[in-house]
Amino acid sequence: MRPIATDALAEQICSQVARHMRNVATSAGIAVPVQMLSSFGQLAAAVSLPSLASSAGVYIRSERKIYLNQPALLSYSSKAQAAILAHELGHAHSDYIGALPAIYGSQTTANSAEEFYAERMACVWGFFDGVREMRIQSGAHAEYLSALTEWPDEGLYLQRMGRYFLRKASGIVT
Ligand SMILES: [Zn+2]
After folding, report:
1. CA-CA distance, 82 to 122, in Å (whole number)?
2. Which residue among 83, 97, 140, 171 is least crowded, i.e. fewest CB within 10 A of its CB?
3. Which residue has the higher pLDDT, 110 or 39?
């Protein structure tokens, strides 16, 4: 799994992430195109999902392509930016493998299962520090950050993430 820039603006971050992932064996042959946009306002997906407009990155399944939102991305450190791209590659990975591992089936929604998967793959691929930094900057709850540190143990990680999201959904943690 490696990112391929489709424009000059995406080249630096793609080569940074590809370099970091050069020893990653997972689906090594798959190249995912990455395009840098000056705004997500022009993305068709942002019409149905307005929160997307302020996101730093998104994987569009129908195009099998990652888009990066330059202004949002540049508000992060270089390390966190790489983690954002790695997280989107995690979404691409879940798309390419077809179905998430059975262990993810216990999650409340398919959407949260895929988020947990993408987030963990970024950690598996060596971007944990950047993921953590990115989540702290975007205001993640301490319980989320604590669950994140369990990524090496997939079962425990899912248990902790699932528990946090249930508590959040029921208003126990805000
Ligand atoms: Zn995601």
Report:
1. 9
2. 171
3. 39
* Structural domain for 66, as ranges: 2-169
Tokens of 109: 């929604």
Ligand 1 centroid from CA 144, angstroms:
14
pLDDT at 58 over 70: yes
Nearest alpha carbon to residue 70 among 41, 32, 31, 33:
41
Check pLDDT > 70 for residue 131: yes
CA of 116 to the centre of ligand 1 (A): 8
Tell me if 86 sits within 8 A of 131, measured CB to CB. yes
| Residue 14 near residue 4 (C-beta atoms within 8 A) | yes
The stretch 108-128 carries a mean pLDDT of 91
> Looking at the domain assignment, is residue 15 inside a domain?
yes
Domain count, the chain: 1
Closest CA to 115 of 147, 75, 82: 147
* 174 in a structural domain: no
Backbone angles phi, psi at 122, to 5 degrees: -60, -40
Task: With cut-offs at 50, 70 and 90, classify the pLDDT of residue 143.
Answer: very high
